[in-house]
Design a protein that fits this description.
The protein has 360 residues and is an alpha+beta fold. It is built from 9 helices and 18 strands. A hairpin with a 5-residue loop joins strand 5 and strand 6.
């Protein structure tokens, strides 16, 4: 009899335990605000004539975007440093600036819904610029001149929201994290010191991953004085991640790197694929001109975004941007040529990714 009573009591304890567990789990797991998916793709587009002069004053209807050959509707549009505006196709009045993003965490939304005007404003705001400075043993000559050129570039970035300064040799050093405080950034430039071997692609990959955590326009400006001699990461992986996260890469390389044809070709392919540009400077004066050119480029970019139409392709998606009218077709369009669809789930209150792509 006692044994039977023991078994019944044990069973009752197990039932009681699972009953309490069922009551406790929903409070933690069943939360309608846990995760949402953002599927907006942002493009930074430069339009130039045959002489490299920027074409300004274009309108949303002047652009045609296709993803995997599927026409897309432009959701937001902006030129240079002006506030982006949401277009009529998304339900907001055309040509009206988006209001500033509200302070505090993101408002919870259902998966797949479009963002509010305030959320869109945060996604397409200004530019976050990451400067990656080569402090390897390639940089011993002209180190101070390079620091001066970078410092002048930082001072000139009036249109950028925030700037970060990283340096690299064999390892990456985050001298100054992304900040709006220009004096702090300049101190970071001056505290960089020369190192040893150059692991450019390793460190550039880490920089792109850092940039991918932030919304809006993301730019990495690399100053390199020589080829890569210590990386384990291939440059193709860096380029694909930059494309998939909407990060434009600009590279300023000195004559030393240009002497190696492989590095020259890699730099040019990587920057072109991400919508950036490559520069090869023979003197410190050329370095300053290259930085000035990048600053001008950022000030003249068109910012376009769209919500991808139904597409069964879960891998690499190609992007093609054209100008619509015959009058404009003589101009050149530069932007990234695609992205790889990756998971982009995040908790309410965290920073939403762009392009549906943030590496895990």
């Amino acid at each position: 009899m006692a044994k039977r009573t023991y078994v019944v009591s044990a069973c009752f304890s197990v039932v009681l335990f699972f009953g309490l567990a069922r009551q406790a789990v929903p409070q933690e797991a069943v939360d309608p605000h846990i995760r949402i998916v953002v599927d907006m793709v942002q493009l930074n587009v430069a339009v130039t004539d045959n002489q490299g002069n920027y074409i300004t004053g274009l309108r949303p209807q002047d652009f045609l975007i296709a993803e995997d050959g599927i026409p897309q509707k432009i959701a937001t549009f902006g030129e240079g440093n002006e506030p982006a505006r949401r277009l009529a196709e998304t339900g907001a009045p055309e040509d009206k600036p988006l209001p500033p993003a509200a302070a505090g965490p993101e408002q919870p939304q259902d998966s797949g819904q479009h963002l509010s005007a305030g959320d869109l404003s945060s996604l397409v705001a200004g530019a976050n610029v990451f400067v990656l400075f080569d402090t390897s043993n390639y940089m011993y000559r002209g180190f101070v001149f390079a620091q001066d050129a970078i410092a002048d570039f930082v001072r000139s970035l009036e249109g950028a929201d925030k700037v970060a300064v990283y340096s690299y040799s064999r390892d990456l050093s985050r001298a100054t994290r992304l900040t709006a405080d220009r004096s702090q950034v300049l101190r970071g430039v001056r505290t960089t010191v020369a190192g040893d071997d150059a692991a450019l692609y390793n460190c550039l990959l880490l920089t792109v991953k850092d940039a991918a955590q932030y919304p809006g326009r993301k730019v990495v400006v690399v100053f390199s004085n020589g080829p890569d001699n210590a990386s384990m990461v291939p440059p193709e992986d860096v380029a694909e991640l930059a494309q998939s996260t909407g990060t434009a890469i600009y590279m300023i390389s000195t004559r030393q790197a240009q002497l190696e044809p492989i590095s020259t070709a890699v730099f040019e392919r990587m920057t072109a694929a991400t919508g950036g540009k490559a520069y090869f400077a023979k003197t410190w004066r050329d370095e300053k001109r290259a930085f000035a050119s990048i600053r001008d480029d950022l000030a003249h970019l068109y910012s376009l975004s769209y919500y991808p139409q139904a597409n069964n392709n879960r891998g690499w998606r190609s992007i093609n941007v054209k100008l619509t009218s015959e009058r404009l077709k003589k101009y050149h369009v530069r932007t990234r040529d695609g992205y790889r669809l990756q998971p982009s789930r995040f908790s309410a209150g965290s920073v939403p990714p762009v392009s549906g792509s943030v590496p895990e």
